[in-house]
Amino acid sequence: MSLIEKYRLAFGISPVPMLLVAQDGKILLANADFEALFEYDLDELTGMDVEVLMPVRHRNHQAALHSAYVQAFTQRHPGTSRDLHGVTKTGALIPLELNLEYISEGSETMMLVVAIDLRHRKFHEELLHSAMDAAASAMIMVNERGEIVFVNRSATSLFGYEENDMLGQRVEMLVPKEFQRVHQIYSGNFMDNRTARAMGLGRDLYACRQDGSRFPVEIVLTPVDAPTGKMVMSTIVDLTERFAAAKAVAQKNAELAALNIELSHYAYSASHDLKAPLLSITGLLSLSIEAMEEGQIDELRENLTRAIEISRRSAHKVEGVLQIARVGRDGMPKTPVLLEPTIQEIWLDLTGGNSRARLALDLRHRDPVVTELPTLKVIIENMLSNALRYVDTAKCEHLIGITSTTEGGHVRITISDNGIGIPARNVQQVFQMFKRLDERSGDGLGLSLVQKQIERLGGRIAVESTEGEGTRFTFTLPSEENGHV
Amino acid sequence: MCRVSVMIVDDNEADRFIVRKRLSKAGVFEELREATNGEEFLQKVSRDAGELHVADPPLVILMDVNMPRMDGFQTIEELQRRVAKGTAHACVVVMMFTSSSNPEDLARAEQIDIVKGYLHKPLEKEGVEKILEIYHS
């Protein structure tokens, strides 16, 4: 029995496509499965050149091809280093996994080819890849040697690489420099003890983009045993937004907690501020009754006058708070307001005309300002009363200056004093609600409401201060009905 | 009988007026000395000021708690430092004088040796009696 006949028997019962090729490339034998795979009729292939089954680009390069096939065979990883294809009778291209074996009988050497149709496997692979490309998380498959063998689309866009720049590279390319060494150790440990788990539990993980920037990540590692070796699938979620959101929430919480404390301080001191004048009035009225019983009319009158004065001032103070609350709620119609008489009226209200402080006006904005008069009054009254309150007794004269200038459609007003000033650490806190920076502070609402009102009217306010020298508030307001054109 | 010297430290003019009236009606006090804030008070009790003399009988201090810049407690702490250094008059009987009913303030007052009493505003006849009682004890 010739060698071919021996093989014909084996080919007949083989469930996989097989081919026997002579040294000169002529096909000696193909089994039914092989001919069906390549769409040939029975015995049609016998005697044909094996090149007929190869893609055109490989024909006439038989030597090169041959060596490639041999290499594929010796590596025992066909398909990994090069996609092999066969050509059918109708010209269709079939992905193949080929196993080749040389057989020698006497002086004759033949090549036995076993071909496995990879179309199904390829189809599933592509399906899997497109599913992974559709995933929102970045997915990266790494082989046992730590090389990237697969990346999905989310991964390339997350890290800013082209797919080909990542494939075959060490996974450490995605790890910030200072962690690259430990990463290798950790990944070695993981390979030795492979269970699906989150990476870096209890540690903050960072990944590195193509441009060198880093970002916080969450990584889940899943071992995958593929026919081509032990792999690890890493699923990477970018935590940048989550981190930022958590930070924002924490900051908001801290602000609310601080505001809450301030609010309770405010409630405490506001009630103290309301209680104190009531107690004074009580004391004066009790003295009045005694004076009345003793027939001391002059004393009675003095005590009652004082009680009335305190009541009047307290009512005025409460009215101020109410007015601010009303203005803050509704807003009101704007009317033309002349600055000078308005300021003089407020000054008189605040000082009763007998303050030791000197008010100097330098008002260069001559036109009326079209604004809400009660709101403007509240603003100026707050700032003037601050200027009066924080007098520096060490200075022989207490000066308060108000200037106005025109700037486009705005009026810029400054109120400055040579009082005690604001310590640098407190300057930026003066506009915070309920912030009473020292015992001389009023209700802790004043400047925060002033700022809100000015912003509501379309202006801005700023403060500069030097401790021991004085303070200057500057604010702008649109001076015309429709603001600047 | 020797008249009692009192100094009030209070930024509230009405409260100083009431104390002035109350003490003068009692008839056993010297004319009320007044300071409108902690600094002014410390100035007045300093040895250099010459307002007080070592031989003088003890001075009763009515100390308000809520005052601008330097509150009553801070003022007392500073007084103690100055007394220790010998730059302030030492013979004083301090009483807190406040509209505050804050238990923290009360507890704080009890911690301080030279604070001998705690008076609530407004000062009435009972308050005046308490001043004399504490002064004589």
What is the count of β-strands of chain B?
5
Could you name the ranges of chain B where pLDDT drops below 50 across 5 or more consecutive residues? none
The DSSP helix count of chain B reads 5
Largest interface: A-B, 22 and 21 residues
CATH class descriptor name of the largest domain in chain A: Alpha Beta
Q: Could you tell me how far the N terminus lies from the C terminus of chain A, measured between alpha carbons in angstroms?
A: 108 Å
Instruction: Quickly give the structural class of chain B.
Output: alpha/beta
Please tell me what the overall shape of chain A is. Answer: rod-shaped
What is the topology, as strand order, of the major beta sheet of chain B?
2-1-3-4-5
Number of strands of chain A: 18
- The overall average pLDDT of chain B, rounded, is 89
| Inertia-based shape of chain B | globular
Low-confidence stretches of chain A: 71-81
Walkthrough of the structure:
The complex is a heterodimer of chains A (485) and B (137). Chain A contains 13 helices and 18 strands. With 485 residues, chain A is α+β, with helices and mostly antiparallel strands. In chain A, strand 3 and strand 4 form a beta hairpin. In chain A, helix 10 packs across helix 11 and helix 11 packs antiparallel against helix 13 (446-456). Mean pLDDT of chain A is 83; it is low at 71-81. Chain B is α/β, with parallel strands linked by helices and 137 residues long. Chain B has a single domain (5-136), classed as 3-Layer(aba) Sandwich (Rossmann fold), CATH 3.40.50. Chain B has five helices and five strands; from the N terminus they run E-H-E-H-E-H-E-H-E-H. Chain B has helices spanning 13-26, 38-45, 72-85, 103-111, 125-136; strands at 5-9, 33-35, 59-63, 92-98, 115-120. Chain B has a five-stranded parallel beta sheet with strand order 2-1-3-4-5, sandwiched between helices. The model of chain B has no long low-confidence stretch (mean pLDDT 89). Chain A binds chain B through residues 272, 275-277, 279-280, 282-284, 286-287, 290, 299, 303, 306, 310, 389, 393, 420, 438-440, and chain B through 12, 14-15, 17-18, 21-22, 25, 39, 66-71, 99-100, 121-124.
